[in-house]
Amino acid sequence: MPSELPDDSRELLHLFAELPADDRARILSLVRSLSLCHAADALRKSPFVSPLSRAAAQGSGIVSTSAPVCDPCV
């Protein structure tokens, strides 16, 4: 692990590495979903994005069962 990381970050990485593979996969999936939710939210709120682009980014309204679920409270 790089030494430029703070101690608490190194400890967190160490604990993460000790988790079973299934738990690590679920955590990474959750983080990716949250990142996607934040990116989509930022795009919807951006004053630099045209209304047409914003509507396209929101999609057709059809939700895939594999699509990440965004928690509106985040």
Spell out the key features of this protein.
mainly alpha, single chain, 74 residues
Your description of this structure?
With 74 residues, the protein is mostly helical. It has helices spanning 7-18, 21-45, 51-58. The longest helix is centred in the middle third of the chain and has 25 residues, at 21-45. It is elongated, with a radius of gyration of 17 Å. Residues 62-66 have low confidence and may be disordered.
Report the β-strand fraction as a percent range.
under 5%
The percent range for helix content is: 55-70%
Going by helix content, strand content and strand pairing, the class is mainly alpha
Low-confidence stretches: 62-66
Shape: elongated
Total DSSP E strands:
0
For the CA atoms, what is the radius of gyration?
Answer: 17 Å
Number of helices: 3
The helix/strand order is HHH
